[in-house]
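Bumping with the actual sequence this time:
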Amino acid sequence: MLAFAPIATAQRTVLAIGAHAGDMELTCGALLVKQRLLGDRVVILHLTLGEGGNARLAPHRYAEQKRSEASAAARVIGAEVLFGPYRDGELPDDDTSRRYVKPTYVVTHWNQSIHKDHATASRIVTDAVLLASLEGVQTEHPPHRGIRGVWYAENWEDAAGFQPYISIDVTDAMDRWREAVTKYEFVRGGSSDFRYLEYYEALAVVRGALARKGRAEAFDIEPSAKRRVLDALP
């Protein structure tokens, strides 16, 4: 049984921001498990609950279910969980939503997606990283310049232009990841015909093979962040 390490005094905070409850657990949940086991603070922010995704339940009923599922998944991961005030399919691309997010060390959606909420969430987070660092932007929080960058998780709906630039070995986190994501009915197969669990399990195998690891999760970053300056060949 894996045990969580105590959170270190000089802790890192990993903030995963998803458009819908379940997005971040599926795409980077094993990374979140791993970092929490290492003693980092992990926070998951669901901008919407994704309550429109169950044809058999009214949105308000499914919202209650997904809030409960998200809380259960977060407990398995050892994460804090936050819920945005927005509705599924109506995530606003405005300054209010950007100020709602106060990122530190961030994982979110890639910026190209067949799902408009995913693409909007990516833009919100990218802009919020800038807003959080500016002295002139007045918020309830002081400016924060300790952001190391934004990592984009791999998602089958966000595939256009995604390049797996960084791979993280998550072999030892997979069992707890599986326990967390199966708290969601849609992952277990009860409300969707897409085989989420099998897809992301297989993807971890593929990324692990390419990284010469057992299992891995892959991430992209901003093109401008891929520049390296060296004094000589490494």
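The tokens above came from a reply further down the thread. DSSP finds seven helices and seven strands in the chain.
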